[in-house]
């Protein structure tokens, strides 16, 4: 009786041990098939794509099992993104127990993926070393944003008016409305008839939902369009945004030579006048001279220096002339804000109202003359007084 009991107990123990062994083997197989290799993270460059942008998807893999695995060829599923370097890819290879590795795929949105969110799948199979292929490969869904928004370029400050040829200061605001930064931003200035103090500006990085301001100085010969071009990178992709901004000019920035008066003495002439600057900006190195047939005498040129915008400077010149001219040119040279030289001129009539030096005239006494109307008045007054008596 006791022998049978011992045999039954021993049999039960053997069965229990066998069942535990089988259960452990099945559990180990399930772990290998469903989760020995996992995706621990991913990275996108750029973070947000433009339609047609090329970028890099980097996926991090980890072997969480206790045995090595051979990781196969990765693929990209879903049809929303192209896998550009699939032909150049090779199997990831051996990944030891607890080991980690990264896989990079060159990707691009398909032609039909133009705006919004895309959800392609990263997938890769693997085999356990010494085992069989895993029927359930690693698969991870990767959300990718596609945004076609361009940079915003606006004028936030400008002069009330800009005179023809005169330099005007504008402040531009360049905004990045996208959800990720742009890099390598450069801004160039152009346009028909536009002259700028600086043709290009390097700004660099503009973070997401942020902006940067730049000041530009431009001059133009007439009404035109200021062309502002911003070139930048989204990841490794080059993009550009261009805007045309109307620029209107008023009047002329050329100096005005006015109030010219000439007088003659001792065979010399003295000319006085004024130089008016109608522009909004200062002009510098202003010099006034009398041109041929004038012959320099004494203060033959006037250095006025700087004349502020909407202001004038007065001058006086002394010269003689050759021959019998009736006019003499008065010439003004000056520099603008770009340090470019300009020249304007006007003519002054030579007025000879003084006596010539050869006529020696001595002062003579002049008899006191009583005007006729005064005599008539006195007579009338006498008549009135006599009548009253």
From TrEMBL:
The alphabetical list of record keywords is: Membrane, Transmembrane, Transmembrane helix
Task: Give the highest taxon in the source lineage.
Answer: Archaea
Give me the segments passing through the membrane. Answer: 368-385
Q: Key word Transmembrane helix present in the record?
A: yes
Q: What is this protein called?
A: S-layer protein
Native organism is: Methanorbis rubei
């Amino acid at each position: 009786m006791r022998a049978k009991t011992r045999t039954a107990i021993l049999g039960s123990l053997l069965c229990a041990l066998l069942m535990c062994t089988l259960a452990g083997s099945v559990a180990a197989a399930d772990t290998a098939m469903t989760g020995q290799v996992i995706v621990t993270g991913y990275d996108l460059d750029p973070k947000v794509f433009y339609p047609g942008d090329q970028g890099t998807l980097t996926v991090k893999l980890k072997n969480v099992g206790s045995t090595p695995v051979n990781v196969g060829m990765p693929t990209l599923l879903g049809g929303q993104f192209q896998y550009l370097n699939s032909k150049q890819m090779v199997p990831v290879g051996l990944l030891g127990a607890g080991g980690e590795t990264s896989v990079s795929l060159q990707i691009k949105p398909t032609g039909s993926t133009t705006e919004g969110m895309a959800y392609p799948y990263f997938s890769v199979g693997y085999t356990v070393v010494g085992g069989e292929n895993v029927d359930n490969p690693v698969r991870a869904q990767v959300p990718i944003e596609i945004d076609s928004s361009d940079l915003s370029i606006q004028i936030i400050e400008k002069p009330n008016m800009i005179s023809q040829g005169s330099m005007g200061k504008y402040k531009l605001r360049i905004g990045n409305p996208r959800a990720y930064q742009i890099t390598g931003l450069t801004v160039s200035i152009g346009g028909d008839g536009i002259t700028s103090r600086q043709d290009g500006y390097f700004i660099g990085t503009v973070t997401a939902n942020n902006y940067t301001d730049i000041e530009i100085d431009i001059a133009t010969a007439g009404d035109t369009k200021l062309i502002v071009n911003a070139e930048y990178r989204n990841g490794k992709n080059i993009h550009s945004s261009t805007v045309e901004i109307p620029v209107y000019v008023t009047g002329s920035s050329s100096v005005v030579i006015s109030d010219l008066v000439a007088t003659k003495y001792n065979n010399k002439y003295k000319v006085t006048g004024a130089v008016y600057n109608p522009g909004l900006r200062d002009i510098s190195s202003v010099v006034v001279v009398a041109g041929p047939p004038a012959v320099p005498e004494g203060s033959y040129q006037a250095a006025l220096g700087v004349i502020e915008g909407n202001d004038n400077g007065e001058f006086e010149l002394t010269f003689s002339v050759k021959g019998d001219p009736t006019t003499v040119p008065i010439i003004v040279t000056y520099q603008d804000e770009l340090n470019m030289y300009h020249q304007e001129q006007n003519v002054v009539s030579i007025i000879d109202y003084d006596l010539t030096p050869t006529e020696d005239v001595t002062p003579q006494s002049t008899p006191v003359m009583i005007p006729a109307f005064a005599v008539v008045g006195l007579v009338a007054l006498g008549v009135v007084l006599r009548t009253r008596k």
